[in-house]
Amino acid sequence: MTLSPTHLRLLPWSNDGKPALLSTDGTATALSLLADRIEEQQIETATVVLDLSRALLGSETPATADEYHFVTQRLAECLTDVLTICESRGQRIPPYKDDE
After folding, report:
1. What DSSP assignment string belongs to the chain?
2. What is the pLDDT of residues 10-29, one digit of tens each?
3. Quick one: 4 exposed, middle or buried, by C-beta within 10 A (0-12, 13-18, 19+)?
4. Cα separation of 13 and 38, whole Å?
5. Which of 8, 44, 72, 89 has its CA 20 to 30 A from that of 35?
6. Contact yes or no for 14/88 (Cβ under 8 A)
């Protein structure tokens, strides 16, 4: 018996800037588990970058323009990754059922 896909999962990487999608029936496949691990790593990276940027911004010694530029770039990259994860996970939340 072949299971038919029930939805498309947005993956945490892109193909030449285009979204990468996985047609899935919700089972744990090698590709979906890889995507889960990458999402975990992206969230961990975002946490580290946020902590480091807070330390830079809270330092008594002012940062240089290059340091601000660097941390801003890293924060934008991490925010992009985390928003992609949120979008992907939001698409996988089943809709509310009507009480009617």
Report:
1. -PPPP-EEEEEEEEETTEEEEEEE-S---HHHHHHHHHHHHHHHHHHHHHHHHHHHHH-SSPPPHHHHHHHHHHHHHHHHHHHHHHHHHHHTSPPPPP--
2. 999 988 889 999 998 888 99
3. exposed
4. 9
5. 72
6. no
At 4, the amino acid letter reads: S
Radius of gyration of the chain (CA): 18
What is the spatial distance between Cα 30 and Cα 41, in angstroms, rounded to a whole number? Answer: 17
pTM score of the predicted model? 0.82
The pLDDT confidence band at residue 93, using thresholds 50, 70 and 90, is confident
Residue type, 36: D
**Phi, psi for residue 11 in degrees, rounded to 5:** -90, 155
